[in-house]
Amino acid sequence: MHSIKSILKAVRNFLFSGLNKEFLIFLFFLALSGIFWLMMTLNETTEREFNIPVQLTGVPRNAVITGELPDTVHITVRDKGFTLVTYAYGGKIHPLTFRFANYADEETGTGQIPMADVQKQVASQLYGSTKLISIKPAKFDFFFTYGSSKRVPVVFRGRITTSKSYYLAHTEFLPSTVTVYANKKQLDQLESVEIEPFNMRNLQDTIHRNVPIKKIRGMKIVPQMVRLAVYPDVLTEESVDVPVTAINMPDNMVLRTFPSKVAVRFTIGASLFRTIKPSQFKVVVDYNDLANNPSDKCKLQLRSVPRSVSKAHLELETVDYLLEQQ
Q1: Where in the sequence is the signal peptide annotated (predicted)?
Q2: Which pTM does this prediction carry?
Q3: CATH number corresponding to 45-145
Q4: DSSP readout, 61-106?
């Protein structure tokens, strides 16, 4: 008990010493001037922006809202600072509510809330001294449908480049299709949906990313996010031996080439090479060329190749040949 009294006495002596008395007086007048400044500021007329939530009520259970109302209205008001503080901290402002049935147009599947109705609800929450300067956004509308939907494929949008010696083998989405809710007219015109632009450079390894579907006004897309898988592959140079075929031959003539098969070289992804067969290529000799331009060797032509190969070319452009009559 004695120690507590000693501490209190020491604190009292410290606070009321000559130097600290002056400091306490300074703090008192500083606080007094701060209060005076605050009172002057709050008594001035100024502008401030407030955000008010917006709610659409009474939506039927079988209706799907495909385009939401703006969820917030931004208002700018002018009044004295005391009043603005009341709006900010006094619980004066409440959400704006609009009944679905009052604004829904069943034929078009849209609803439009007039700005006058928005202003009326806002003004009803303001004091008479407050001036409403602006309301944003300028348009309050929504879209709905009673179950009309359509499944459409997801389409890639963007640009992907691979590192040197690689190529883009395949891209896929999971799920590959999404359900779109909208009115019948919009659904009839819709063939697919796109992802938000996806860009990547110098890709070497397989990647998986969650990507958002690009929003379409008046349509609800489910799901709004899909899984994108991108598969690069190593490019390799390969070759296959392809039989030489004669075309435009007379019925009584036979063409024999030496060799009877030639190598076709090409570039392809390593994982795709096992799917390649010689029968997918076509190497020909045109008899009409031989008849018009006689020569010791015949010219070969590469007429068709699989779509999965690139830079396909013949290892030999000419070969020896023999024409025989049957």
Answers
A1: none
A2: 0.67
A3: 2.170.120.30
A4: TT-EEEEPPPSEEEEEEEEEHHHHHHHHHSS----EEEEHHHHEET
In the chain, where the domains are located:
2-42, 45-145, 149-234, 236-325
Exposure letters 307-325 (e unless 16+ CB within 10 A, then b) = eebeebebeeeebebeeee
Please give the single-letter amino acid code of residue 271: S
One digit per residue, the tens of pLDDT, for the chain of length 326 reads 556 666 666 656 655 555 556 665 666 656 655 565 656 555 567 888 999 999 999 999 999 999 999 999 999 988 887 778 788 787 788 999 999 999 999 888 999 999 999 999 999 998 888 899 999 998 999 999 998 899 999 999 999 999 888 988 889 999 999 999 998 889 999 999 999 999 999 999 999 999 999 999 999 999 999 999 999 999 999 999 999 999 999 888 898 999 999 999 999 998 889 899 999 999 999 999 888 888 889 999 999 999 989 999 999 999 999 988 87
In CATH terms, the fold of domain 236-325 is RNA Polymerase Alpha Subunit; Chain A, domain 2 (2.170.120)
